[in-house]
Every structure is written in C-alpha cells, then in structure tokens.
Write a structure and sequence with these properties.
With 378 residues, this protein is an alpha+beta fold. It has three domains: 109 residues; 106 residues, 2-Layer Sandwich (Beta Polymerase, domain 2), CATH 3.30.460; 119 residues, no CATH class. Helix 11 crosses helix 13 and helix 15 packs antiparallel against helix 16.
Length: 378
C-alpha cells in the first residue's frame, strides 16, 4: 500500500511539472498564479518543497518512475528550475540524472543514425514512437520500413554485427524483428511492412511513408511520421496492444494537439478506413481529460472527436505504475470495431490475422501467470 501511495505521489509531481501550465504561457506571472491555483485545488504539493524533502531512496523511486514513463529530461529540467530557484541542494541530484540521461540519448542516436542510413539502401525508413518523446527517448529504438525482411536482417547482421533477439508468436504476426546491437543497450525494433498487434494494419503504412518528413534531433536527421500518423501509431500501441498509457504519451499528444498542426478531418478519414476511429477519439479524450486535471482546461479538440469517444479519463486508473486502459468491455469493443471494418472493407486476410488476437492474448496471460514471462507469445 505504501509503495502504491508513493508511486501515485511521484506521478502527480511529474504530471504537475509537465502539464500544470497552459501552452504559450512562457512562464509569465498570470500563468504561474493560475497554475498555483489549479495545484491548490487539486491538493498538489509545490514542486520544490516536495522534492527538497526527498531522501536518496525517495529520489531514486522518483527517477525510476520518470524513467519508465520516458519523461526524465522534460520533467527533471522543470524540477531543476524549481529547486534552483529555492536554493535547494537537491538540484545537484537532478543535474546528475539529467547528465546521465543526456549521455544515454546521445549514445543511442549515434547508433540510430547510421542504422537508418544503412537500411535506406533497402527501402524507406521511418523512426516511429522513439523520437515522439524528444528530448527524452524510449527504452528501445523503433523503426518502420517497407524493405524486404531478409534485406533488413542481412544489413543489421553484416554492417552492425547485430543478432536477432528471440521472436515471439506476436512478433511474427506483427512483422517485427528485434536486434541486439553490440555496444547499444537499447534494442532496435524494426516493423517490416506492417503495423498493429497482429500486423493487420497495412493501409496505414502507405500514408506513414508518403507523409513522413525529415527532422533534426541532437544533430542527426531522421524521417519521422506526420502528426496524424503519430497519433495513429500511439493509439494502436496504447488502446489496441498494451492497454495502458505512460505519462510521455499524455505529454507527447498534449503538445501535438496544442501545436495546432493536427488535421482532424484527415485523421478521422484515416481512422475510419482502418476501423480505429472510435479508438483514436477515445485516446485523445483520455489525453485531454488527464491534461485538464492539471491545466484546469481541456485540450482544443473538435466536437466530432469528443462525440466519437467511447469513454474518457474517468475510467483510467493508475495501477502497477502505469495508467491502465479498461479492457472489458471497453477495449474489447474497440477491437471488435476494428475487426468489423477490416471485414467490411473486404480485407479478409488481415481480418483473419486480427481474429487470432484473443487466443494470443489468452495464451500470453496464461504463460505469464505460470512462468511470470509472456515473451515467447506476446
């Protein structure tokens, strides 16, 4: 009970650091007053006061949660400013954590850049998910390519001396290959020609490649998805695969929505064609609801998005250190809608692939219950 209570407190502090100010506030006085009032209304401790009281063990727990939610760089920079303003010696702990994470991210990018360049000899290469958290980085490096799988394996093994990690049945269905690269702590996960838990989404991949753009991260250039495809991929991962969200997902999509760059009409068209529209809308409303609890106002989503949502943040629970999406009956109904749309589109092969998901999930749950490990299946 104490561990759960502490984790909830740490999540609240991290969320406060990342979400308490509305966009465009630039830290001005009125925004600070509004943010302070909102924190008071929600019973949230002042950042500097809370972290200044931490001992080494508590700070280690905060770091662990921030790391698992991929928000160390963003949240700890805010914490550093708050602590430095108070003259707290805990700012030194924050400094060391930031330097450590910067080194990890820089090291990962020094590998990711040549890997992408090498794989481009065989096809298009898009970095998905991992760079959405910038300046944070995910725990592995995710790529999508339309190259032939044999060419991908050959390039990774011959040019980087990488070897394949064990592939689960889920990996095989999804068209995923995980590579262990010498000198790189993170796995390189390559999605070949397919997206989705069972590789059922292939129509989405065409727009993913066609609408991608080159952006710079840490002195390196990478092709990344357009905003709409970013939301689509995040939805697939959270609402149709893991059934939980990280704080980075909330922060990433909040920033994307605030930017005003999302074409919701196109997103709806793309989502409906893939059978994912209700899941997309629900995911965005969950993000908006969570952000609202710290900002005091919802995100600027169109009415046709909020009207299409099946549920909102009120059903999401913080459990086992993540924000859990309800599976029965909510997520199950979203799965059924995706399957139905693939079937009605005449995409029988991919509808059949998706129909294997319940059995795969059941087997994974049993395997986890018996052995504590579902990697051979999921």
């Amino acid at each position: 009970m104490t561990a759960t209570k502490n984790s909830t407190r740490y999540l609240t502090l991290l969320s406060q650091a990342l979400l308490s100010q509305a966009p465009g506030s630039d830290g001005n006085a009125s925004s600070h007053i509004a943010a302070a009032q909102n924190r008071q209304n929600n019973g949230v401790e002042p950042l500097a006061e809370a972290v200044s009281a931490f001992d080494v063990h508590e700070f280690g727990e905060l770091w662990t949660l921030a790391n698992s939610h991929h928000v160390i760089m963003r949240a700890f920079l805010v914490l550093h400013r708050a602590l430095a303003a108070e003259g707290s010696n805990r700012a030194e702990w924050i400094d060391r954590a930031i330097v450590k994470e910067q080194a990890r991210v820089g090291h990962a990018l020094s590998f990711l850049s040549p890997i992408c360049q090498a794989l481009e000899d065989a096809g298009d290469v898009i970095v998905i998910k991992s760079l959405d958290h910038w300046p944070d980085l995910g725990s592995d490096l995710d790529l999508y390519t339309n190259a032939d799988a044999d060419n991908v394996v050959a390039i990774m093994s011959e040019r980087f001396q990488a070897h394949l990690a064990e592939r689960s049945w889920g990996d095989r269905l999804a068209g995923k290959w995980n590579f262990v690269v010498p000198g790189l702590p993170e796995l390189v996960e390559v999605h070949v020609a397919r997206l989705g838990q069972t590789g059922e989404q292939i129509a989405v991949t065409r727009s993913l490649v066609a609408r991608s753009a080159t952006e710079h991260f840490g002195g390196h250039a990478f092709r990344v998805p357009a905003p709409e495809e970013r939301i689509m991929i995040s939805t697939l991962q959270r609402m149709y695969r893991h059934f939980y969200a990280r704080l980075c997902d909330i922060v990433d999509n909040t920033k994307l929505i605030d930017s005003g760059t999302v074409d919701y009409g196109y997103l709806k068209s793309l989502g409906r064609s893939a059978g994912l529209w209700e899941g997309l809308a629900t995911y965005l409303v969950i993000v908006s609801g969570y952000a609202r609890s710290y900002r005091g106002e919802p995100l600027p989503l169109p009415t046709f998005v909020t009207d299409a949502a099946r549920f909102g943040n009120e059903l999401v629970r913080f459990k086992r250190n993540f924000l859990r999406i309800p599976i029965f009956p909510q997520a199950v109904s979203l799965y059924a809608s995706e399957w139905k749309r693939l079937f009605l589109n005449g995409d029988l092969q991919n509808a059949l692939r998706l129909s294997l998901l319940p059995g795969l999930a059941t087997a994974a749950a049993l395997e986890f219950k018996i052995t504590g490990n579902d990697k051979g299946i999921w």
